[in-house]
Design a protein that fits this description.
Layout: E1 3-4, H1 6-14, H2 20-27, E2 37-38, E3 42-46, E4 52-53, E5 59-60, E6 65-69
Antiparallel strand pairs: 1-2, 3-6, 4-5
């Protein structure tokens, strides 16, 4: 596929598709749609163990970002 969803990327990286919002928060400056990430896009990948809860049930990155190409 030429695009991939953050849901699928989170499933690959974290083993939990529900953590897609961590990826979106870290990359919303370059992503318009979490359902359509172009293959080859360099994403910052937050460490889920360093995430802190935010209002609304999501998570917000705290530190420890790594780049990954998808």
């Amino acid at each position: 596929p030429k695009t991939m969803s953050l849901y699928r990327v989170a499933e690959i990286l974290y083993g939990d598709a529900e953590k897609w919002n961590l990826l979106f928060e870290a990359n919303k400056h370059i992503l318009e749609d979490p359902e359509r990430v172009a293959v080859g896009t360099v994403l910052q990948v937050p460490d889920p163990t360093k995430a802190t809860p935010v209002e609304g049930g999501g998570k917000k990155k705290k530190s420890s970002l790594t780049d990954g190409v998808f």
